[in-house]
Amino acid sequence: MSRFLICFLFLLLSSVSAAGRFLRLAKPDPSAAAATARWLSSQNSWGVLSTISSDLGGSPFGNVVSYSDGLPGDGRGIPYFYLTALDPTARDALRDERSSFTLSEFPLATCGDIDPENPTCSKLTLSGKLKLLEFNTTEGEFAKKALFTKHPEMEGWPKNHKFRIFKLNIEHIFLIDWFGGPKPISISEYLESATNRVSVF
Amino acid sequence: MSRFLICFLFLLLSSVSAAGRFLRLAKPDPSAAAATARWLSSQNSWGVLSTISSDLGGSPFGNVVSYSDGLPGDGRGIPYFYLTALDPTARDALRDERSSFTLSEFPLATCGDIDPENPTCSKLTLSGKLKLLEFNTTEGEFAKKALFTKHPEMEGWPKNHKFRIFKLNIEHIFLIDWFGGPKPISISEYLESATNRVSVF
Fold it and tell me: Chain A within 8 Å of B82 (Cβ-Cβ)?
C-alpha cells in the first residue's frame, strides 16, 4: 500500500506543479458565477492578453502572458502583468489601452474529458483598459509582490528590458461556465465575491 | 515493481490525455522556427481566438476555442474552428474578419519549470482573416473531419445552435521560441514546413 501512497503523492505533486506551483482550490458550483470567475483568475498563472495591434494596422493581437491577481490563496480578481515594451503587447497598450484578458479552465485539469470549447469547461474574458502602474506606489508594490511570488523567475529578468507593471482596469466580464450563454456579472459582484482564502504555502 | 509499472503507465496516460487525447511529437529545436510554429499548431487542441468586438465598441475580444489543423499526426498548419453565432466570436468575424489565434507551449507540459512568459516556453500568434467555410466543399469536408477527429464531442453538439466551420486565413506569424525577440517566418515557410508525420492512433 505504501507504494500506492507514493504514487498518489507523486501524482498530486505533478498536478500542483502543472498549475503553477501552488495548491488549487476546489471549483465553485457553476451557479456561483462571480465565484467561478474569481476562481479562474486566482488559479491560473497565465492567459492571453489581446490588444489592438499597431504593427498590424488595428487588427486584434493576442499574446501569451503570465499574470497574478494577488498572493496565492488571496487573489483579488484584478490581473497584473510584467511586460516589456520590447514586446508588441505593451507597445500596443501604451498607444491604445483597450484590451481583453482570457483564461480557460482547461489547463487547470478540472474539465476531465470535456472538450475545451464545451460551455461546462469554464472560460473567462475580462475586458477593459490596460494601465501602466508606477513601481513606487502602494498598488505597484502589491502588484510586484503578487507577480514575483507566483512567478519567481520574473525578479531575475534582464533589467535592460525595462519590464513594467501593467494592470487591467476591468470594464466588462464575459464568463461561460455552463449551458445557456454567458453569465451576467457586474464588476462589483466580481470584485466583491468572497474568496476562499487559505494558506497554501 | 509491477505496481510502479502501473503507476508509470497511469502517469503516461494522464499526460497524453492532458494534451487532448493524442500522443505528442517531440518539440523541434528552437532554431527551426517554422517547424516549432507548426508543432505548436498540431499539438495543441485549443487556443484563444481574438476578434474586434462589436458588442464592446471595437475593443479586442479573446475567446477560448477548440480547433484542429488536420488529422492527428497530419497537421497542415491552418486552424479550423467550429463556432456558433450564438457566441460573440463568430458574430464579430462575420462583421469584421480581422482576428488572431494564440497558442502556448505551456499546456503541452514541455516547458518544465520555466515560466509561461519566458521566451523559451514558446508562443505563437497567427493573425489574418477569419472566414466562414461551406460544409459541402472539399476543404469544408477536410476541416469537419479534422475537427471531429480531434474533438469527437463536437459532432453531437446541438443542431439548433447552427455551428459553422471557420478558417483562419493566415497573413502574419508571430513566434517566440527563444531569447532575442520574435522569429521572422513567412506564410509559405510556415505552410511548407516539413511535418513529422506519424501514425498516432
Answer: yes
